[in-house]
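question for whoever is on the cluster today: can someone run the full assembly for these? two chains, 325 residues total. i dont have access anymore since they changed the login thing
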Amino acid sequence: MDICRRKSVIEISELDPFLAELLRQIPASANPDGAPAAEQRIFSPPIKGKATEFCAEWKMYVEPELRRLFQSATETVATDLEQLNGNEKSLGNRTLRIPAKHSDAWLSALNQARIVIAAKNKFTENELNDHCHSPIGSRRDLSLFQVNFYGFLQEFILRELRS
Amino acid sequence: MSAENSSVTDMTKAHIGGHRPPLQFELNASYVSLFGMSCGPRRDGACLAQIKEVEEITLVSNEKAGIITTAEPTIEKETQSEEELDLPWQVVVHNDPVNLMSYVTMVFQRVFGYPRERAERHMLEVHQNGRSILWSGMRERAELYVQQLHGYLLLATLEKAG
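^ ran it for u. tokens below:
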């Protein structure tokens, strides 16, 4: 897999079917529905301790705004990922072109996905910092790889934003 | 906070390269605090605390008694504006093993407008001490910051100082 910036596009080329499939899973992975731990992490309380009235107002007025913001980002990413639609064979060595103006949406969707996957799997800090973990021998290993792969993409996009 | 993911490069055999013209940030969601009503009356910002101490000594003559009495001095209590009473609120960001260090730094720069060095100092404080106070001041603005930080999926809370 190669990743580089070409003018106003971030280009991910030489995508093998496995990594292409991981990319296609970003929107689904970012969805916290059905995972209370993930939901609680994504929509964390704005205040610690007892402030039930304030938290209730936050839930009523702020959370819907946040949901819209997160959904908008994943929708943008899902649209970009349509380039990868097709059968498994056609995914071999595909290229994904992400408009640079979609960088923020990608950062958000990748972050959502990483947070939701980590919460669902209850990854510890040690596990998350063990980037040399290999090989992939279980569903949990695959999820950890997914978190790290998405983190790598985030790093690249952040580097591009800084430059 | 998660450290940089450089080793993923090895795992995916990825290559980073190419030219990198500067980017423009597009997504800058504007947030509106929805809690103005719940935080008390509107603060006009122009009201300053006044400390006014007036001592009045009133001589009252009691003609009937032929006695001159001295009344107690009237002392006006110190008053504080709503704004001053509202001051000690802090925006605290808590450690989170998932968010990347570089991402957290970028968020601090965007939300608070801090220069990179200051944003990095706060990021490291969060990473090493588990939390960092990013800003303190009026509650309404603190709420706004917390809302923005949640929009970037950071663990942030509003706390009253002390």
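summary bc i know u wont read the tokens: Chain B has a mean pLDDT of 68. DSSP finds five helices and six strands in chain B.
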